[in-house]
Design goal:
Layout: E1 2-8, E2 11-17, E3 31-33, H1 34-50, H2 60-76, H3 82-91, E4 95-98, E5 102-107, E6 116-127, E7 130-135, H4 148-166, H5 178-187, H6 192-200, H7 209-214, H8 222-229
Antiparallel strand pairs: 1-2, 2-3, 4-5, 5-6, 6-7
Helix pairs in contact: 1-2, 4-5
Amino acid sequence: MSPTQARKGARLYRYYTTRLEPGEKKNSVWRMPCGEIERLVINAIADHLRSLESNGGETAADLSKQIDDQSDMADALPDMCITKQREILLNYQTKVQIKEAAIEIVFKPSDNTDPVSVTVNAELVSRGSDVKLAIAPSDGISKRDPDPILLRLVAHAFAARDFLVDGTPSPMIAEYSKAHLQKLTRLSYLAPDIISAIIDGSQPENLTGRRILRMGNVPLCWKAQRAMLGFN
């Protein structure tokens, strides 16, 4: 895959896209946001560095220093700038292979160690023109970026409620019909844990703004909401 980018207004979006060989069909192209796969790789490597195992040939002092060095690297790696992260991953000879149901990461923490292979269960899920990573909860390695469409929908929902209940106007919803405002207002009564999941990007992978709007009247009962939206 090759890195590419697109701009929408002031925002820059980065993607990895399949490099097509001569004769390959365009419908075989995978297009993935860079942030998700990069965060998954960085966090998986950091987790491994924290779980260093002895190979039996080190002295106690050498092993202690190695543990300290790798622990420091594991803590610092996720917060480094992209340029520094890239430098370290290249030094580790990192290779990433994306499969239908897993991400395989191979790297060498140092010249004196054998290559390490880490597999993360992750399903590729299509959302619009993009392919997203649905990380199995048991892995707990990475969190998706919050969905900007869902975030905007939640913001519009509370603006619609403020307008219909208190008469507070908002330019975000000024052009919406009364029927649409009523539908949006109902979404402002989503359970707090559902709204929190949308804000931090941990909602079910198939929960999209389009899907919510097509559902019609979302129930006011929090338990029924969780069942309908896939939070059970």
